[in-house]
Design goal:
250 residues, alpha+beta, Protein Transport Mog1p, Chain A
Length: 250
Amino acid sequence: MKAAFAVAALSLIVAPAALFATSAAAQQDPAERARIEELTRRLNGAMPAPQTPPPTTPQTARTPAQAAPQAVPQTARRATPPAAAQAAPQPRSQPTPAPRPQPPKIAGQAPLGTPRPQAVLPAPPSAPNPQGLSGAQQAALPFSVDLPPGFLLIEGRTAPGAHVYSARKAGKTYLMIYTGPSSQFPIYDGEQVTAGGRISVVVPEGARRIAMEHLFQRSAKPAEIHVWVMAQDGADRDEAERIAQTVDPK
């Protein structure tokens, strides 16, 4: 009986202190607060409270994934390109440019590399029955020329102090002869060779060398006598070259 009364009296004394300790413990560390609450329970004769783990702090509250990050496997990457890349427009194929039109070939045009006249004086127009110079007229000329049978020496255009003659056969012009102060020499491209008092333009043709024109320069009038071949190929050209070789100033 005395023992029960003593316990009751002790509980009356301790209870206010426990309340004060509890309110003060609320402001203390959580672990200290739990210890005080357990002591209060024991003083009041209550059963001990189950042990609870201390609350975790933000540093200990990490998830396993945060505490140990794992590398993303390479096979988890997307194998297909982004939609923007898939929708990118493909470049258009460029059309093949049309070939440039080539200039038409002119009938009778010599192939490249064949010497052609640069500025040939046109042959005088043919009369229905052209009359060649007579023997006396040819003797008065400042040059001499040997014409084979069937050839005519015809005088063409004239100018003050200048004359142009053509050697023809059957209406075809084989060579031209100019007499005057200044000729258009050279007419043909080729090697210029000085021999026999004249300058000749020589062009190669296979193993042959053909003299296409000759220029005589004099101190008397006419100052120049210029002879050039008009026939361009075959036997006619060879005959015209032979006639041109016979021209000689007087």
